[in-house]
Specification:
heterodimer, A: alpha+beta, five-stranded antiparallel beta sheet, disordered C terminus, B: mainly alpha, MetI-like fold, 2 strands, about 80% helix, transport (chain A)
Amino acid sequence: MELESPVSTQSTRIEITQCAKTYPDGTRGLLPVDLNIEAGEVVALLGPSGCGKTTLLRLLAGLETADPGSRILFGDQDVTALPAEKRGIGMVFQSYALFPQMTVEANIVYGLKIRGASADECRRTAGTLIDLVRLNGLEKKRPTELSGGQRQRVALARAVAVKPRVLLLDEPMAALDAKLKESLREELAELLRRLGITAVHVTHDQQEAMAIADRLALMEAGQIMQVGTAESLYRNPAHPFVARFLGRVNTLARSSEDMAAGVIRLGNGALACPGHLRDRNEVMLRPEDIHLVAPNGGATARIARRTFLGDRVQLQLELEGQPPLMVEAHGLLAYAPGDIVGLEIDTERLLPARNDATAA
Amino acid sequence: MRTSSTSRSPLLFLTTVAICIFMVAPVLVSVMAGLVNSYNRGISSGLTLRWVEQVWEVYGSTVGASIGLALACVICTLLLGVPCAYALARSRSRLARAFEELLLLPVAIPSLATALALILVYGNMTSLRQSFVFILIGHVVFTLPFMVRTVSAAFQRPDLLAMEEAARTLGAGFVQRFLGVLVPAVLPAIVAGMLMVFTLSIGEFNLTWMLHIPLTRTLPVGLADSYASMRIEVGSAYTLVFLLVILPVLWILQALTTLIQKRYGT
């Protein structure tokens, strides 16, 4: 039997317009940003620490006041000036912030009690949610008696119990160990789909963002650098920062002679430069887009270091007159340090690094 | 069998025992003095409970007064101190920091000065001056910082900040989250503060001695009175009464505190 979703019709669209935050000491936590999130969509705010992702989440929650001129809409309602307690949101905190003096069940129904729900309704919702997040048998335990993963599930159940319009997740996996993280993020992704709830998820972990979110908003220095699906950001980064933050890249520098000749130097060989990169004095290349072949007259490199990673090997390649390149190959291929290999590169996969020669 | 500490350092053991005897002896001698017929003749004069009975007759009312006063003091510091502690914990203004320092003044300034100031300003209000409320005011002024400091430190913990925000996102207004989430979460600190306030109030002498009138005597004031005006045996019997009354109360409170801290501690 399909579980009845405890949050069915409430999900709402979020419209963020010119939303900014300046702290009292003058620090600019967030420069004016725009972002639209569809009803039922899961968006991850991804970026390094201090990039403003948590600030944006707290503005959505109403835990911080946005600068004048900012506008946040939940559906058709302008919530910019509404305090957190009136926004109709659910939030999962990094530390989970469970109430230690209450049982698991009391934690979960706290929001309902505040809204004056009957004891009967509280019991029913608690039952449904405890099934949903698989906490059966732990109803009467206190948070201190639970494991990290169980606490996270209580926090999630508590946040969705109030049937929020928007679910906000502030680094919900940060307090868990790596192994648990991996299994729980699949679980969380699955749960969010099932609830069909509009969710904004803050994280600095790209794997987590990719696993959970429909779209990523990659942030840096108080700005949103790019919004899109994980794949589009990875394949078509709008900014070098995006390319460097998601996955790994090799950077190839181009001299003015290379640029005049329309080539990209690759050790002892050269690649014809695609038209759209003609003016770039640096281009980037993902490790998986470099194919190792038997030397065939093109560019060659010497393997300097080999790191075994299980399913694959990471190879550091030495090229003439260039910084080393990082390449990944299948773990069963027998490469050894000192081997000379040929390089084949699909130039369509090259990414722009600097905007142009003058910007350098 | 010798314990490991005596075998390792007999000198340390002997020193410890000597210091213990030195400190406990006055208490024992004082208690014994209240139980013998004549202090000068010692135990050979025979044991008696008549001094204790006499103390109970003359000063019995101070026991109830002291406990009642201490409980009232605990209630007042709770009502005043817990909201004040919250306000101080959440405020970042310089004024709040200054106020926190100011709050400590009654502890630093000799109680006699505080009492004198209270008498100068409010001494003319006869009905106030003649009631226990006057002493209660003094005790609250003196004990409030102990409650505020203890509880304020608890409110400042980062997990408390997160808990308050969590309650807000779940729709709880200020009163709901203060009484429903925050106060229960800092309950161990509040109980510790209550125990401290009760203990200080029970034993307070300086302030009380200045503020009291013959109708409003507490245990310590009665003790001073008996030392000053009666036989040494009566004064000593008073000490015994004080210990017999106060120790069980303190033990019960301490047990209660431990219980609550165990149950609600994070």
